[in-house]
Structure formats: structure tokens, C-alpha cells
TrEMBL record:
Protein name per Swiss-Prot or TrEMBL: Ubiquitin carboxyl-terminal hydrolase
Record flagged with keyword Cytoplasm: yes
Residues annotated as domain USP: 100-428
PANTHER family for the chain: UBIQUITIN CARBOXYL-TERMINAL HYDROLASE (PTHR21646)
Gene Ontology CC terms: perinuclear region of cytoplasm
Keyword vocabulary terms for this entry: Biological rhythms, Cytoplasm, Hydrolase, Metal-binding, Protease, Thiol protease, Ubl conjugation pathway, Zinc
GO molecular function, one term: cysteine-type deubiquitinase activity
Catalytic activity: Thiol-dependent hydrolysis of ester, thioester, amide, peptide and isopeptide bonds formed by the C-terminal Gly of ubiquitin (a 76-residue protein attached to proteins as an intracellular targeting signal)
UniProt cross-references to InterPro entries, sorted A to Z: Papain-like_cys_pep_sf, Peptidase_C19_UCH, Ub_carboxyl-term_hydrolase, USP, USP_CS
Compartment list: Cytoplasm, Perinuclear region
Keyword Metal-binding: yes
Top-level taxon in the UniProt lineage: Eukaryota
GO biological process: protein deubiquitination; proteolysis; rhythmic process
Species annotation: Pygocentrus nattereri (Red-bellied piranha)
Length: 433
């Protein structure tokens, strides 16, 4: 439902590439000692060792020599080189400017649709164009996904022609991180977005070694104070540009029906998956948000244990938004089951393009107003379908349709449709950021 960025796929992401490198080197060394004279093999061994040792640093060096694209100043020392170019990449002023299509590599429209939505995410685009991600890579050996993502974004914004480009290098990298995207099967765009953001985040996490954070009891604190502490604890482990942009904090309150005791929990979220309310008429996005935050009664087998009664009690549960993210991703649950997709709800959900006011969902009545800038559109059924995207160009403010390699202008009045699937909103005003 919402994303607790726990460890669900951490280990999965951090594939054992280093281990493999070292092992391979070891095997080579052994065979060298077996078959050759000692002195030349020692020399080779030394050479090999210096390569291996460099693995952590080496990746940075390697990356840089493979594409000298300029870096910003405050790089970690191991990433510094004498001949740094500091020039930023500027969007091509005449031509393409983000209006470049992506070739379909065989059922990859889900990927193309999400990539175009992200390419039109103003701050993420600039992060890539300015090569700021290089500063955050922290000399990780494993940063190829971010590199390819940035390269792709740069190409989309600086390409001299509008000719569609192939995202195959990027696809190779995302497959390494998430083997489920190997091959050419139709995939779910929202799941893909989660994997991608998580993968990018891991590579540019400002925290290189996640500390063990002790479990602390914040129950004596006020809700706001508790929320702040929980958020800071989260940042001690997960802190990146991706988090800066996409992650918010959700409050869930559990109230005991016997004694009225209310316990609160604060969790980070990367997107909100909204149920679509069943209704004969049209449904609005606000209706979906109301359904998502509706008070839920937990009774029978679901009864939680009340901390004050020290017994299982009937409780009511309710969500509210404690911290609004800069970019709010709303996923409309059109498919009844995430994996075994059996049915698709084609309910028309109306959503505002401008001034989506979320104050009523805020924990403390703070102001939060969002504007829409991108939509991933799913046409078709659960079995076969096609994804497109429509995005507002962050430079010109004009709307465009992205249908794989085709990009065409559209009017904002065409944006609403019964096929909107993932909505990208950006925060305009919030009294507390
Ligand atoms: C979204 O899908 C609907 C249904 O197929 C289609 O009519 C509409 O043109 C699509 N919108 C865009 C902008 O691709
Ligand atoms: C996308 O392009 C294909 C042609 O390749 C076309 O059949 C389809 O209708 C287009 N979809 C949308 C939503 O524009
Ligand atoms: C945002 O805040 C500014 C200054 O407080 C105000 O002028 C503007 O109308 C607000 N915009 C929205 C969309 O609320
Ligand atoms: Zn109680």
C-alpha cells in the first residue's frame, strides 16, 4: 500500500560485484603461481592487486575517464582528478529540450513512460544535467544505474535532434539491479518506478555506511516532536536527492475504543497507492484520498493490543500526512492484485491539474498545494496494454504526449482520462517545508 523503505530489496540491489572481482583475481593469481615463474607473476600480481584495490576508488576514476562530463567542486578526494572540467551541461537551447522519444525495445513502454515522467521532474533533471549526482556517488564501486540514468536524461535534454534514442544501456543496468526486469515482458509502471527510485537512491545515498539505529522510545514526546525524531532517524540511514524530492512522512494513529488511548506511528512513504472508490458516477482524486485516509475499524482477528489496556482491543486506525514531499507520486490502484492482475478498473478519476489542495489530509492542518506535471497513462487491459506519458515541460510549461519514440504537443485539457495510472504532482506552497 505505502512504501516502508525497509530492507525489502536492499540486499538484492547490492549485488556482490566486488566479491566477484576479488574472487576472480584470486583464481587468476593462483593459476599464475602454478604455471609461470615467480618473478613475472609477482609483477603481474602486483598489477592485479592495484587494480582490485582500486575497485572502490577505481570506479570513480574509470567512470570519469570514460566520459569527461564535468563535476562540481566539492567531490570526495578519491574522485578528484587534476583535469576536472567544471562546466555544467545546459539544455540545448534550440532543439529537442526534453522532447526526444525513447525507442521501444520490445514491451518496454512501461519503462519509457516512467523515464519520461522522471525526465520532466524539474529538480531531478537538473541534478543530472549539472552532474551533481557525481558528488553524491561517494566513490561507490556500484553506481552504474545512476550513471546511465543521468546519461539518458542528459541526452534527452541536450540532443541536437529530435530523433528517438534507445534506452538499452539504461535497461542493461536496471536489469542488473532488478533481475525481474530482464527480458521483454510487460511490467507494471508503478512497480518499475519504485525499483528505479530505490536503486538510484542507494547509489547516491549520502550515507555510505548505514549506522545501526537503536530502537528508541519516543512515546513520551508530543506527536510533532516524535515525527521529527523519527524523520531524523530515517535520514541517518537514507539521505539522498531522491529522498529530498520524493519521500514524505505518513502518520498512522491507532485509537483504543475502550480507553481512548491513541498511539501514533510515523513512516516514510515514497508514493501513495490510492484505492478507487466504488461509485456509479465519476470519482475524484480527493475521493480516493478520502478513502485512503478514512478511519478504519480493526476488530475481531485484527484487534491490536492497546498499550494502556495491555489487552487486545477494538481500535480505529487513521492515516494522515505528516510531511508533504516535494514531489508527490499518486498511484491509482486500477489493478485488483499487484502481481496476478485480474481486473482493471477503468473508473474515470478526475484530478486537478492545478492547485490540488491537500490540507484536509495533513496531520496538523498545514497548507499543501500541488500542481500536476506528469502522468503515466495505461491503455488496455490487464493482459495487454500500452503505456504512454504526458508531461509538462519544466522549461516551457507546455504539455506533450510521449508515446515511445513519438513526442507530440497536446493541450492540458486532454490530460484527464480514465487511463491515468500514476500521477506526479509537485508542491507549490506549504507552510512548513
Ligand atoms: C491515455 O489513454 C487514453 C485511453 O486510451 C487515450 O484516449 C488518451 O489519448 C491517452 N492520453 C495520452 C495523453 O496519451
Ligand atoms: C501510440 O502510438 C501507436 C502507434 O505506434 C498508436 O497505435 C497508439 O494509438 C498511440 N497511443 C496513444 C495513447 O497515443
Ligand atoms: C503561494 O504562496 C504565495 C506567497 O505566500 C502566494 O502569493 C501564492 O498565491 C501561493 N500560491 C498558491 C498556489 O497557493
Ligand atoms: Zn485501551
Amino acid at each position: 500500500m505505502l512504501r516502508h523503505t525497509g530492507e525489502f530489496d536492499r540486499t538484492f540491489w547490492q549485488s556482490g560485484q566486488n566479491v566477484l572481482q576479488v574472487k576472480t583475481a584470486g583464481v587468476i593469481l593462483l593459476s599464475l603461481f602454478n604455471y609461470y615463474t615467480v618473478i613475472p607473476s609477482l609483477i603481474i600480481a602486483l598489477l592485479l592487486f592495484s587494480c582490485c584495490f582500486g575497485a572502490a576508488d577505481g570506479a570513480c576514476l574509470f567512470r570519469r575517464s570514460s566520459e569527461q562530463q564535468g563535476l562540481s567542486s566539492n567531490l570526495p578526494t578519491c574522485c578528484l582528478e587534476k583535469s576536472e572540467q567544471t562546466a555544467h551541461i545546459h539544455p540545448n537551447s534550440k532543439n529537442a529540450q526534453g522532447l526526444v522519444g525513447l525507442r521501444n525495445l520490445g514491451n518496454t513502454c512501461f519503462m519509457n513512460s516512467i523515464l519520461q515522467c522522471l525526465s520532466n521532474t524539474h529538480d531531478l533533471r537538473d541534478y543530472c544535467l549539472r552532474n551533481t549526482h557525481r558528488t553524491d556517488l561517494n566513490c561507490r564501486a556500484n553506481a552504474a544505474l545512476m550513471e546511465e540514468f543521468a546519461k539518458l536524461t542528459q541526452t534527452l535534454w541536450t540532443s541536437a535532434s529530435n530523433e528517438a534514442i534507445s534506452p538499452s544501456d539504461f535497461k542493461t543496468q536496471i536489469q542488473k539491479y532488478a533481475p525481474r526486469f530482464v527480458g521483454y515482458n510487460q511490467q507494471d509502471a508503478q512497480e518499475f518506478l519504485r525499483f528505479l527510485l530505490d536503486g538510484l537512491h542507494n547509489e547516491v545515498n549520502r550515507v555510505s555506511i548505514r549506522p545501526r539505529v537503536p530502537v528508541e522510545d519516543f512515546d513520551h514526546l508530543s506527536d510533532d516532536e516524535k515525527a521529527k525524531r523519527m524523520w531524523n532517524k530515517y535520514l541517518e540511514r537514507e539521505d539522498s536527492k531522491v529522498v529530498d524530492l520524493f519521500v514524505g512522512q505518513l502518520k498512522s494513529s491507532l485509537t483504543c475504543s475502550e480507553c481512548g488511548f491513541c498511539s501514533t506511528v510515523f513512516d516514510p512513504f515514497w508514493d501513495l497507492s490510492l484505492p478507487i472508490s466504488k461509485s456509479s458516477g465519476d470519482v475524484s482524486l480527493i475521493d480516493c484520498l478520502r478513502l485512503f485516509t478514512k478511519e478504519d475499524v480493526l476488530d475481531g482477528n485484527e484487534k491490536p493490543t492497546c498499550q494502556r489496556c495491555k489487552a487486545r482491543r477494538k481500535c480505529t486506525k487513521k492515516f494522515s500526512i505528516q510531511k508533504f514531499p516535494k514531489v508527490l507520486v499518486l498511484h491509482l490502484k486500477r489493478f485488483s492484485e499487484a502481481r496476478i492482475k485480474t481486473a482493471k478498473l477503468c473508473t474515470f478519476v478526475s484530478f486537478p491539474i492545478k492547485e490540488l489542495d491537500l490540507r484536509e489530509f495533513a496531520s496538523d492542518n498545514m497548507n499543501a498545494i500541488y500542481n500536476l506535471y506528469a502522468v503515466s497513462n495505461h491503455t488496455g487491459t490487464t493482459l495487454g496494454g500500452h503505456y504512454t506519458a504526458y508531461c509538462r515541460n519544466p522549461s516551457t510549461g507546455e504539455w506533450y504526449t510521449y508515446n515511445d519514440s513519438r513526442v507530440s504537443p497536446m493541450s492540458s485539457s486532454q490530460v484527464r482520462s480514465s487511463d491515468a495510472y500514476v500521477l506526479f504532482y509537485e508542491l507549490t506552497n506549504s507552510s512548513r517545508m
